[in-house]
Specification:
Number of domains: 2
Order of helices and strands: HHEEEEEEEEEEEEEEEE
Number of strands: 16
CATH superfamily of the largest domain: Immunoglobulins
Number of helices: 2
Shape: globular
Largest sheet: 5 strands, mixed
Distance between the termini: 30 Å
Length: 257
């Protein structure tokens, strides 16, 4: 049973899907497609259709390039993936690619490198995981991958420890309008930490109202008023203290039209 929370209105279960345009190069995705809600989601999951990713075996995702610790010339970077056990498709299941702690870029074709443009010199981190067509992350072993690299030369900046408890913000992002704004997916990725009532937890704060999430599962925001809304996610330990880590506190602003 997925969590039901309250933020300016009830937080409820819902169905959210996406319809990004196909992009091999970095693009600003269409906001309406990013937020598009698919109310036929259960049918997609039950039938094993392309919308659900068609998991045929254990998922194995890795970043083939750049390599861990690699120094690239930049400023553009061609990111190459290796993905097994999960089918991606245009306007369907895809990979969420996160540079440092910026909002993710959707990758719909892993057979070709995805180009990130205009990277600044110094240390950077890539994180990636497969997503359904409605942007829900695949929370299974082997689905998450990360790489530390540098542009120009390493500068002593952020280097993400692959063994450290880490929170990765995924959704929501951007703008939502009309029926797409009625139920908004909130999703994240947790690595090297298990959420529970007595262990690690995620504090979710929306417009100043907080709730503790003790299960790693998506929740949905319903009935947000028109305007800007601030979403903040924090990884906490069993004592309620912030877990050290460069990306374990993330705040985003979304807009409801």
């Amino acid at each position: 049973m997925r969590s039901v929370l309250s933020v300016q209105a009830l937080v409820a279960l819902a169905l959210v899907t996406g319809c990004h345009h196909h992009a091999r190069h970095e693009q600003a995705p269409d906001a309406a497609c990013e937020a598009h809600a698919d109310h036929a989601r259960p049918a997609a999951e039950a039938s094993g259709s392309a919308a659900s990713g068609m998991r045929t075996s254990k998922i194995a995702l890795s970043i083939a390039s750049p390599k861990e610790g690699e120094v690239v010339a930049g400023p553009d970077l061609a990111v190459a993936f290796a993905l097994q056990g999960y089918a991606v498709a245009q306007k369907g299941p895809h990979v969420h690619l996160i540079l440092d702690n910026e909002p993710y870029k959707p990758v719909y074709d892993v057979s070709q490198p995805f180009v990130l443009k205009g990277l600044k010199p110094g240390n950077h981190t890539l994180r990636a995981f497969p997503s359904t067509a409605w942007h829900e992350s695949q929370k299974v072993a082997g689905a998450f991958t990360q790489v530390n690299f540098a542009v120009g030369q390493a500068d002593g900046g952020v280097k993400l420890d692959p063994s450290a408890p880490t929170l990765t913000y995924s959704r929501p992002k951007g703008e939502y309008a009309g029926t797409d704004a009625q139920r908004i997916l909130l999703d994240f990725y947790v690595t090297n930490a298990t959420l529970s009532e007595t262990g690690y937890r995620v504090r979710r704060t929306v417009d100043g109202q907080s709730a503790l999430l003790t299960r790693w599962e998506p929740t949905y925001l319903e009935g947000l008023a028109s305007g800007s809304h601030t979403i903040k996610l924090e990884l906490l330990d069993a004592q309620g203290r912030a877990v050290p880590g460069p990306y374990n506190v993330t705040e985003r602003t979304i807009t409801v039209r």
